[in-house]
Amino acid sequence: MKFEIRDYKNRLTRRLYEKFFMFKKRSEKFWNRFVEKGHEKMTIMFIPHDEKKIVNFQISKFIIMFFISLFVFIIITSSYAVIKNKAEEDEVKKQLLSYRGIKADLVKYEQLTNEISNIIEVLKPEIESIYQLSSDTEEIGDLWSYNDSDIDGIDILIKNKKIISDDIYSIKKIQTDLTNTTNIIKTVENFINERNRVMNQMPSLIPNPGHITSLFGWRRSPFGHGRDFHTGIDIAASPGTAIHSTAPGCVVFAGWMGGYGKAVKIKHKYGYETIYAHMSGINVGVNTTQTIKAGTVVGFVGMTGNATGNHCHYEIRLGDVAINPYPYMSRMW
After folding, report:
1. By CB distance 3.0 to 4.6 Å, which of 8, 66, 285, 317 could disulfide with 273?
2. Cα separation, 282 vs 262, whole angstroms
3. C-alpha angle 169-172-174 in degrees, rounded to nearest 5
4. Chain-centroid distance, C-alpha 121
């Protein structure tokens, strides 16, 4: 078995050597023929019209091939250079058009930036007024200054001032103004939410439909005894018209209340109390631990007690002092 493998290897080696040798011979023969042909000379003659002096010279085929190759190389490289130059010119034109477009856009952006800056400058006094109203003070401080988080960015812009457009500073100023505006709006929003929360707990509704027959304050007595001080507002309506609580609270009294007739007294937050008097009927019971909602029917219009007609005597007290209910009967905001 080893002998057969060795024999096969020897035959393969011998065959490869023979092929290589034949290839080498053919290559040498081809090269020799090529060199021989290349050294052959050609005679070139220049014959003038008068044929007096004929110029001729001999040149080998190698030299002719060299000049032909050189000519072809020059043609190819020149064509490549022309094509590349044309492509570069087209690219330059594209870049120029792009630059002009960018420049036009920058002009538009600059105009828009200036317009936004002008709008913000117009809005600033209005925003300051809203802030003063919400904070109940005339001192607004420096609302439009840079905050601590902006200082580092501003320092970088100042260092690069020579290479950065002035529009960057304008945009940064707009950003700061918008951020401060957002903070002011949040402050006003918090104030409005807090005020609404307080307003929802204060008497702020009309207790019953009808028309006002007597306002708060000094008046001519309806009983013909000169002048007296009216501590509430009288709202005339048909008998049995529902009377509603004007704010959430606790019923602290429900029953006969002397000259008030059948009356209901409700205690609200922030020291307010409301009284609904001269009712024909009461719809709630006394319960200081149970609250009622705004709009709850507490009774019905009548003329019990000292009354000259069917109406609801509506009274608001702050502490123990009766105050004018009229400004509270509809929300002012």
Report:
1. 317
2. 7
3. 110
4. 20
